[in-house]
TrEMBL record:
The keyword Hydrolase applies. This is SGNH/GDSL hydrolase family protein. Keywords: Hydrolase. Pfam families: Lipase_GDSL_2 (PF13472). It comes from Undibacterium aquatile. Residues 9-185 form the SGNH hydrolase-type esterase domain. CDD domains: SGNH_arylesterase_like. GO terms for molecular function: hydrolase activity.
C-alpha cells in the first residue's frame, strides 16, 4: 500500500459552489484519483489534507490556520511513509485582501516544496515525490464569494507558467489543471462536479508512473 497526501484547499475539499456543502469522496477529484488508480491495479490510499481558504505561504487576516507553510513539515512527518505529495494551492493567494501576483504564489509553492523535502521524517523513510498541480485560472467571481475574490481573475494570470518554472528549478513534477478543466461556471473559483471527475482521472494518469518509482 502506497500513501498519497493531497495538500490543498477548497477546490480539492470539494465545496459545492455557492453553498457550504461538500461533495462525496467518490465525487471529489482526490477520491476519483484513488478509485482510478486502484482500479488500474495500484494499491494506494489517498490522504486528504484540504482546508478551505488555505494559501501557499500567507496568513488569512480573518481566519487562523490558513497559511499552508505553517505545520506542513509536521504533516509530512505525521503521515510518512509517503510515496507522493500532491500540492494544489494558489487560488486563495489571489483573494481581494492580497496584492499577490503569479510570481508571488510560485514562490509560496517553492517554499512548500522545500518544507516537504526537509521534513523531519524517520530514518530510512523515503522523501516523497512531489507533484505540483496548478489550479485552473479564476474566472470572473460570482455569487457570495465575489467580494472575497474580486480582481482574482486578473491577479492569477500566468500562474501555470510561473509554477512550471519553479518545478523545473526544483526538480519536481508539474501538471496544469487548466489544461483539462476550468473553474466553476457557477462561482468562477471552485470546481463543479464534472470538473472534479475529469481532473481526478487526469491526475491519476500523471501519478501512475510516479508511483512505480516508489514500489517497495
Amino acid at each position: 500500500m502506497q500513501n498519497i497526501l493531497v495538500y490543498s484547499d477548497s477546490l480539492s475539499w470539494g465545496i459545492v459552489p455557492t453553498t457550504r456543502k461538500r461533495l462525496l469522496f467518490e465525487q471529489r477529484w482526490p477520491g476519483v484519483m484513488e478509485m482510478s488508480l486502484c482500479s488500474a491495479g495500484s494499491k494506494v490510499r489517498v490522504i486528504e489534507d484540504c482546508l478551505n481558504g488555505r494559501r501557499t505561504a500567507w496568513d488569512d487576516p480573518y481566519k487562523p490556520g490558513r497559511n499552508g507553510l505553517v505545520g506542513l513539515a509536521q504533516r509530512i512527518e505525521m503521515h510518512s511513509p509517503l510515496a507522493l505529495v500532491v500540492l494544489m494551492l494558489g487560488t486563495n493567494d489571489f483573494q481581494s485582501m492580497h496584492e499577490h501576483n503569479a510570481w508571488h504564489s510560485s514562490q509560496g509553492i517553492s517554499a512548500l516544496v522545500s518544507a516537504i523535502r526537509t521534513a523531519p521524517i524517520e530514518p530510512g523513510m523515503p522523501v516523497p515525490e512531489i507533484l505540483v498541480v496548478a489550479p485552473p485560472p479564476i474566472r470572473t467571481p460570482q455569487g457570495p464569494i465575489a467580494p472575497k475574490f474580486a480582481g482574482g481573475d486578473v491577479k492569477c494570470v500566468g500562474l501555470s507558467a510561473a509554477y512550471r518554472i519553479v518545478c523545473e528549478e526544483a526538480g519536481c513534477h508539474f501538471f496544469d489543471a487548466g489544461s483539462v478543466v476550468t473553474s466553476s461556471k457557477v462561482d468562477g473559483v471552485h470546481l463543479d462536479l464534472e470538473q472534479h471527475l475529469i481532473l481526478g482521472s487526469a491526475v491519476a494518469e500523471v501519478v501512475k508512473p510516479l508511483l512505480s518509482k516508489n514500489v517497495a
